[in-house]
Design goal:
alpha+beta; globular; 4 strands; 87 residues
Length: 87
């Protein structure tokens, strides 16, 4: 249940901040139109979902991606997230 709540929070916050970062968070329907370029993970970067979103965006930028989609997220003391990146 925590995973669903965390993913919902990521989705809501990413919708509110499109354009704040170079690599944008997208949903599954948007991802269907793009080419996957692999996956990235971040963990222990803070306690707020915005910290994870910012870290995922920065890591996606470093790999030359224009977008990412969170495929796994959890909070067990520290956040951990895995995202598929797209070019």
């Amino acid at each position: 249940m925590k995973i669903k709540t965390t993913l919902a929070a990521f989705s809501l916050l990413s919708v509110l901040s499109f354009g704040s970062f170079a690599a944008q968070s997208i949903d599954a329907s948007q991802a269907e139109k793009l080419h996957s370029a692999g996956t990235i993970t971040v963990s222990g970067v803070g306690t707020a979902p915005s910290d994870i979103r910012q870290a995922l965006s920065a890591k996606a930028d470093a790999k030359g991606a224009t977008a990412y989609r969170v495929i796994e997220a959890r909070s067990e003391g520290n956040f951990h997230a895995t995202a598929e990146i797209y070019k």
